[in-house]
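Weekly modeling sync, notes
Attendees: S.R. (lead), two postdocs, one rotation student

Agenda item 3: backlog of single-chain predictions. S.R. asked that every request posted to the team notebook include the full sequence so nobody has to chase files. The rotation student volunteered to paste the first one in as an example of the format we agreed on. Action items at the bottom.

Example entry:
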Amino acid sequence: AWSARNIDRSYPIHIGLTLLFTGHALIHVVDILTGHLPTEHWLIDLPGVFLPAVIMIALAIPSVRMRVTR
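Predicted structure, as returned to the notebook:
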């Protein structure tokens, strides 16, 4: 809630969460590629793991963030 009310000051928090989401997604990618998870997990993890990480990365780009927060 704080970040939503203080969008101008929340960028460092967004970067930290983006690193967390991206790291989590990369762990899933490695697990799938190494056979620790079945290949079906590409689709299972898409909406809850991969897509949020991609959205967070996109919103971390300053030009995109400025357009979205106006």
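Discussion: group reviewed the output briefly. Helices lie at 2-5, 11-33, 41-60, 62-69.
Action items: rotation student to repeat for the remaining queue; S.R. to check formatting next week.
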